[in-house]
Write a structure and sequence with these properties.
This protein is 40% helix and 21% strand. The chain has seven helices and seven strands, in the order ααββαααβββαβαβ. Strands 5-4-3-6-7 form a five-stranded mixed sheet, with helices on one face. Strands 1-2 form a two-stranded antiparallel ribbon.
Amino acid sequence: MSGGVSPTQRIRDEIDALFTGDRDLVEVLEGVARLGARLIIQTALEAEVTEFLGRARYQRAANAEDARPGCRNGYCPTTVKTTAGPVTLERPKLRGTTETFASRLFGAGVTKTNALESLVIAGFVRGLSTRDVEATLADALGAEATLSKSTVSRVCEQVKDEFTRWRERRLDDLTLDYLFLDASHFKMHPGARAELVLAAWGITTEGKAVFVALGEGGGESTDVWSDFLGELTARGLTPPLLVISDGAGGLINATETVFGRSLRQRC
């Protein structure tokens, strides 16, 4: 692969490749978990370098107000432990700097990065609070691994943007034999009431599992499910051969309205 492709983009390509093969669904999900952890950590590393140099990758120093002397000089492989097992990262190298770059993420004695995985999740469920994200990391790894507010914000915003792009992607090329629909309640943080999350996943005509969509719901009424399913069709999803769901009345009514041509089965 071209050296001009960033490590984060290579990881995204690996994640995409998992869904194009003939692997077992459990194996695919395990691969996504491992690569997802690697993507988050790699993104944080590159964000630290961006903050240190005061400019983004390929941005000229003359065009960056806070640019420092120095430039990126490739990467060196580094293996760290995560909750998904050991992962290899591309640790950025710099040259021409007036001071040594030291990653705060990989400070002295920091060998396990499960806190970084959890901090991003914590950031989402707490409204992307920088303070909460920093506290999560500091509690688990100690002060030597504390990331700056700008780095934490940059990582969270990038992951949020990627999720938004996935959530709004077109579904024209997705042809499903089976569409599974369900809703579950989750507590976003301690002390909060459980909130409803709508989910859709399916099996394509080629027999491949695919995660279709997630959405918020104030309940399981016909209107709520109709809005959720209507958004899928507006993005190009064609009616599947069979829709599988539980016996919730609102979900059944919405399914029969939006996917009236599809067969329906209760799980």
